[in-house]
Known about the structure:
This protein is α+β, with helices and mostly antiparallel strands. The chain has helices at residues 20-31, 34-44, 53-66, 70-81, 90-94, 97-112, 118-128, 132-137, 193-204, 208-217, 232-240, and strands spanning 45-46, 50-51, 143-149, 156-162, 165-172, 176-182, 220-222, 229-231. The protein is elongated. It starts with 19 loop residues before the first helix and ends with a helix.
Amino acid sequence: MNAHVVDWRRMxxxxxxxxxxxxxxxxxxxxxxxxAWDELGYRLxxxxxxxxxxxxxxxxxxxxxxxxxxxxxxxxxxxxxxxAGGHGCDxxxxxxxxxxxxxxKLLDRHLKSRPTGYLATYLDLxxxxxxxxxxxxxxxxxxxxxxxxxxxxxxEVTIAIGGYGRCSAIRDWQLGDVDRRDLxxxxxxxxxxxxxxxxxxxxxxxxDHLAEGIVHLFGQAxxxxxxxxxxxxxxxxxxxRPVM
Length: 244
């Protein structure tokens, strides 16, 4: 999608305005103005994870700025992390394949530099690779929790991966985590395609704690109620994958 073919009369932002975003884009293209970036950010990505036609119309221009602007790269990533859902802009998203492919390269290159705030860029790249459910929930594995219904007995099982432990348990608000069972991490060679990429990227970039968390997330858990064993990532994905 090239800027000169965008019909901005149809591309409203979070306030319903159709003229403000193109004006702000011109401003940041001219002088990288911090105030303009702030306004552009909240007009394109509203708190509460909402995006708008103007968000996707702006994406190619943000990507063109992203090689030299951290704010452009971050805003483009924020838009992509919200690309799954009921925004009604699938046609606009589908019109941006070149911009998305370029953003993928830029994000991956940035990760290789091992930046401060590595995880945020990592999650942006997950979204660009259409792993929206993981982009929305993966943390730094210092204290991550995932709630999954056991596929065999339907018990609500809490999966903990972090300093609190690497275990499955039944959470009771008075008794705490009842009957904890150690998780069974996957071996890297047995990971799914998505898990293998997530793990390999973290290893490549020296993010050992992240890599270790991923093999547990894509490993197996034992249900404390019925003692059945299930794949954590498969069950979480089937329950939480966004409907496109």
